[in-house]
Specification:
Blueprint lengths: L1 H21 L5 E6 L4 E5 L4 E6 L6 E6 L5 E6 L4 E6 L4 E7 L4 E7 L2 E6 L11 H7 L10 E6 L4 E7 L4 E6 L5 E6 L4 E6 L5 E6 L7 E6 L5 E6 L4 E6 L4 E6 L4 E6 L5 E6 L4 E6 L5 E6 L4 E6 L5 E6 L4 E6 L4 E7 L4 E7 L10
Amino acid sequence: MKSTFSRLLISIVLSAVAVSASAGSKGVAYVSNQDGGVNTVDIETMQTTGTIDIQAKGPRGIGITPDGKLLVTANKDSDNLSVIDVATGNVVKQIAIGKNPEFVRVHDYIAYVTYEPSPTTGGAQKPEATAAKKDDDDDKLPGHIAIVDLKTSKVIMDIVGKPETEGLEFSPDGKKLIVTNESDDSITVHDMKSGKLLENISVAQFGQRPRGIKASPDGKTYIVTLEFSNKFLVLDSKLKPIRTVDTGKSPYGVSFDRSGNYLYIASSKEKALQVFDAKTLAKLKDIPTGERCWHFSFSPDDKDILLACGRSGEVVVVDTEKKEVAKRIADKDMPWGIVTYPKSMGSLDKP
């Protein structure tokens, strides 16, 4: 009888866990906060449900494994990567990376992290400041891409890149790693397995400070935002530059929607999320947002976009059908980046 009771109790507990897991069935958003940890947002209610202590300072880049079990943050002020068990919210490992780690992409159980040893990195500078610093040898230090095996918690490769490595994208066939290099005004292409430099593409004739990069869902096009030139650059499937398109001030985060019909650009100083027709590249709408909105993610059901707006202390929720702001979620710890689980389209991730 005791055994029967125990089995019944276990059954009740498991049922309760299942109910809890199904609550907020639209998924969870994870928001990295430069002045704090990681906030969790229930996408069904669009309410902040808690904060994860990452046990480090200055989280910026954020990514999640395909199974949703591990969350990682690149911690700019701690020079490391925090690996968090999502089920418990506990940090399971701190992995030393290098100075100023910033951008993270997760492919399978491998994390790719850009970091910038240059002592003057860490914030947007005016074009004239960029020109001046090119005469300073200290600011010509190459950036790096650390490749981290999340199963072993070890850096398995360190790729020496160009000055101020920034955005990361994978080629549709999963064979190439494509990196934007801010102060070098270039895009570099590396072999995913060996890290070997395959190609160095200068974008200086098109604009300054390449930051965000995203491949289209059909793999035929790449978009790179040029922050100082208020444009984005269009490249074909072989990464040959085709044309530029004007944007608002200081474009950074970029993503297509899942269908590939729309292209979204976060223009931070324009204080807008800009919507373009992905086929014609005509601008369709400016959606007013907030201060220093750099990165965003669609909800897993594609019905909303969540945009991290650091300087206005909020996550702005945009209705994708109406293409207008639906809600503002207060976040006073300077939100920087955002990903979801289940994985969705966004400036930092894609399914």
